[in-house]
Amino acid sequence: DKGGWSSFMAKEVSEQPDAVANTLRGRIVDGVVVIPELAEFGDEALARIRRIVIIACGTAAYAGQVAKYAIEKWAKVPVDVELSHEFRYRDPVIENDTLVVSISQSGETMDTLMAVKYAREAGAVAISICNTQGATIPRESNAVIYTHAGPEVAVASTKAFVAQIAALYLFALHLARVRGTLGSAELLEHTAELQAIPEKIATTLLQGDAVRQLATWMTDSRAVLFLGRHVGFPIALEGALKLKELAYIHAEGFAAGELKHGPIALIEPGQPVFVVVPSPRGSAHLHPKVVSNIQEIRARGARVIVIAEQGDAAVLPFADTVIHIPLAAPLFEPLLAVVPLQLFAMELATAKGLDVDQPRNLAKSVTVE
Ligand code: M6R
To answer: Could you read off the pLDDT of 107-126 as tens digits, one per residue?
Structure first.
């Protein structure tokens, strides 16, 4: 039931505040993250982990890429994020102090399932982040942290993505506490930031009309580029994936720092480029670098659409369109910045008369290798 929405995707995008809130519910007690699902490992075992390998495909892998920044910063454990199908077939080094974390909305993605089985046979402990109760991947894992996004029907993953990041951040904070890598004041501060996210996503959703207008003049675009830096990089990749799968437009995401190493050659007059801009307050060292990237592409005629924090005045002179997101600490910006990119892909596909819930050639759950 679409509940009055034009598509399941529109409904699911709108449900994102609840997807995050429900994933946090019961897992924060007096401002402290508690994940009973991990109790069986014991805190000492989690404290002994030397390396984390995140395995996933598609959008779930981008959630993993976002979480890498938080886990390394907070829990000080090295994290590799690997596509399940690449991991499985390259003789990866797995040691008994390696923790494998799989991420899957459906819990049935064959590539990820095979990677989890492979890792466990090699002696790793595997935790699953999954949105589907009782699915195969959680059953094949040592423990599962369920996301509570509710059923996701549209092929394009949206609310599951933000719920995955929320669950991974809970995991990162839990890990930081048992490993003693963050003090209690910092733990409380980050946990409070996480709890504030549902309301900030709701505020971001109010940009829907601005995004729809943008989409209407872009229906003839042949290619769209997405730039991001730090946690904005996986969001650029996700924005490009959404546009490919829904609107059948060639789209590529780049790390903004790579621009001069090749991609800037693609910029010609009229080329639309989305830029996810880090906060000028929270990322004072990165913000000017991204603004300078914007100037470089603008000087070559790019049509620049900027996703920037409310009040970021530095981007205004160089942007054709600015979409604002609420203030958040840097690691939390992805949960907000992704929303206009999801809406954009959905609106552009709709404007082109395409089926946003069931794009061509795609299945919701990829149960073959
Ligand atoms: O069910 P999973 O999370 O394992 O699915 C992984 C990918 O197939 C999935 O995220 C896919 O990339 C989506 N269609 C993206 O919108």
So the answer is: 999 999 999 999 999 999 99
Exposure string over 103-127, b if 16+ CB within 10 A, otherwise e: bbbbbbbbbbbbbbbbbbeeebbbb
| 328 closest CA partner among 278, 368, 288 | 278
Mutational pocket test of ligand 1: of 105, 144, 146, 361, the residue with most ligand atoms within 8 Å of the beta carbon: 105
Nearest residue (CA) to ligand 1, atom 4: 104
Q: Binning pLDDT at 50, 70 and 90, where does residue 43 land? A: confident
pTM of the predicted protein model:
0.98
Place of tokens 């903004």: 256
DSSP string, 223-287: EEEEEE-TTHHHHHHHHHHHHHHHH--EEEEEEGGGGGGTGGGG--TT-EEEEEPPPTTTTTTTH
Residue 211, φ and ψ in degrees, nearest 5:
-70, -40
Poorest-pLDDT segment among 43-47, 51-55, 206-210:
43-47
Element (H, E) at 308: strand 303-309
Note the pLDDT of residue 196: 98
Q: How many CB atoms lie within 10 A of CB 226?
A: 28
For 267-282, how does the pLDDT look when each residue is reduced to its tens digit (9 = 90+)? 999 999 999 999 999 9
DSSP one-letter code for 180: T
Residue 364 C-alpha to ligand 1 middle, in angstroms? Answer: 7
Q: How many CB atoms are closer than 10 A to CB 256?
A: 27
Q: Pick the closest to residue 265 from 290, 300, 306, 222 (CA basis).
A: 300
- 155 pocket-lining for ligand 1 (C-beta < 6 Å): yes
Neighbours of 317 (CB within 10 A): 10
